[in-house]
User: Fold these one by one.
Assistant:
Number 1:
Amino acid sequence: MTLAPRLIAFSLVVGASLWSLAIATRADEPFSTDAAVLVAIGLLAFAVIAAVGLLLPRGRWARNLARALLIGEVLLAAAVPLDGWAIPALVLTGLGVIGIQGKWLDGWLRRLPAADGPGLKAMLYALGALAMVPAVGLAAPGGVEIRQGLLGALGVIIAWGYSKAQLWALWAGRLLLPVVTVVAALASEPLGAVTLVIVGSAMTYLAWTEAARLAISPLMEKLPGPRRMDPKPEAGS
């Protein structure tokens, strides 16, 4: 393993950890304690997923996920006063941007996705379910109510179930998630409500796609009958 992927993965995880400290150690500026915890969980979860994806499967999806994470950290830097933990966090974000955009990963990452991979929409559904956690924190910076917290919890449950190839995780995204999203949006400020509705709508759409279903429930898992082989021709025939 070359050094560059390790350093980039390290910068992603440590940078997300420092941003988590930067927002969690502030008193309601700009996030309340519970909202900061949810945002921090999202940062750390996606940083670890991106880092592992860069080092082990070496998928290009991990690079795109890292880019999305770094964009989120840049936006976070615009909302958080740049002092304390935010200063080294911003430095690592900058190093991460340079590393992820550089040519160091071009020869390391796979050129083509794995043949038995889940597909883009299925992966977006799993990651989007997990993204419900920080989305709730961002939508309710002043404090998370129970109705909003239920949406984040549902996202975690869906992500876990879908990663285990459970069909109920799809139906939860199709039928239950829209209802819980509306309930959480009604408990949020207008901007937060719009954020939750956008994320929830995207998740519901992905849950109804054929690609998301086929990733965990193929059309034909077993052959309808035993395999038959053509008899070998007899010698001299």
Note: The chain is about 70% helix and 0% strand.
Number 2:
Amino acid sequence: MNFSLLFRMLILVIISVLFTNFILENNKIRNSIISLITPLTKFLRLPYPCVFSFVLCFFNSTAGKSALANFYKNKEINDIDVILTIVMSTFSTVLGEYLLTAQALITIAILGLKLGIIYLFLNLFSSFLQLLAGVVYIHKYQNTKTINIEEIPLIQKPKGNAIKRSIKILKKTIPTIIVTFFLINFLLEIGGYKYLNILFSPFLKFFGIPGMSAIVIIAQLIHFSAGYTTVATLFYSGTLTLKQALITLLLGSMAVITSIYLKYTFPMYIGLFGKFGIKVGIIDYMASIFSKFIMIFFLMFLL
């Protein structure tokens, strides 16, 4: 059992919650972020708290979702707002990871310029599809009015001390994450990954990739760099074509997404949103997987 993952998870959540609450307490920082998100609101047509969370996810996904949970608990946004924001914020999260971390450069360094850039584009575009789907839904079914900057709830300083507000959230979030983490890992320890492997194996032939591509998917589950190194070796040795390498990487990313959701995302959503977090997690997971499938089918039939 990877206790270092649990430790990092808890530290990240604690820092993120504190970070979010201190931002909300600082009028200057809060208003600066609001001035940046105002143009986005006109396009997204979401309530300002949702757009605030969307932008914050660019810098830190957990912080953005923690902020969203705060607004939801304060009844400033409803269930649909939360679901739409989380699904759409995948784009800002991925974009932030590419621009604010070394992940994009590491990907290109391992996979090579051509394979690396195409894979990064497909990954980013799949998240853009989630953003686009959310925007289409909002423009068709939602009727969010345009709000003047003075009407934004974030302008007003939140009640209470930032540390006290954070402790109130963490008192419920931390125990929930710990219990769920041990429960999920226990299920995986007794053979959960065997079932995942059985689930993915029958699809390999359908997607037109050789059986050894399963090695890449397994390696990617261990660490993204291991998966990238494996597929690069197979690609540059001529074992995999460009199309097969890209499909393998996307399938591997789907396996990684599944693993992350089981170990981290679902516990986090349940900790932040309670029972509603289960619904949020399922919809967010399905949206991420479906967008990846679209990219794979594009490669299979159009490339």
Note: The radius of gyration is 20 Å.
Number 3:
Amino acid sequence: MKAYDINSKRHILEELIDNALLDSVKWVANRCTSQKPQEPDYMSALSTKFVKDLFNVLVAVFPYYDFSVLGVYCHQKPIVDIKQAKKTELGDILFVYADRKLKGEIVLNSLLLQAKVSSDPCLRVHQSERHQLELYKNWPQFTYCRAGNLNGKKRNILPKTINDGAQYLLIDDNSFTNGLYFRKGMFPMGCAIPDDILCINNSLSSELIDLLKLKSGRTFDSNPHTTEDEWSKMIWDLLKISTLKYSKRKNAQLKSFSRINECSHFCTEGMRDMTLLDEALGNYINIEDISDENCGVSVVLIESRLRSEKV
């Protein structure tokens, strides 16, 4: 999308995405009757309920564009080994934006988030979770574990430092502020740069808008077969394995559903052709004997294409 188009609608866009996120939080809170929602429940809300609402927002605000928004729910896998005492999750949810140009070019952006429920906008990383922080701060070489076809494969992300493509997502655990009212300057989810003390620096709605502008997140290469960039390889890895299995989350009362189905995919008429997830599947699509370990992070895939040049 053009930055000018996004900037001209930013105020209303951010407000509508804020409301969609709040509705998703209330949606999952109403389903978690036996206990308070946990991180996996919020991921299920973002990758199912929020997907439809986000699609409706984008279509309403940007009528000159075609959109596809697709959600895939997974949790707790893949695990990676960074040669510490504990293996760590690679992340909880991956937001991917595909900007499809009229002449066929595609620009890809990514935002990988590790979710933490917190009662405070600042959260000290517990000693038992510092292996996750080490991954996001220094990106040591890692080996996939419990990741099906990826098991044993190594990735070596450069540079060895914090980047905007991998952040923490802090989720307000207060059902009152989340579900009953919404005051200016308050939001149920915010992004934090990896650090010993995680402090929200941006609302999730604002971060997603910056993802569309390519101002936040980390871009990745469009050809997984020829790229030499390890970040690009990792993102394509996650897209591939996140499409292969079925998923359920009992606490949020979500029954088993196909990870690629109409219930989690919404698109305008002009975007009914192949999605980026279809491209990610590649040779995997015909594999029948899929391991139970072929699970990945939750994915929200946003794709856009300008219908025609405005005059």
Note: The radius of gyration is 18 Å.
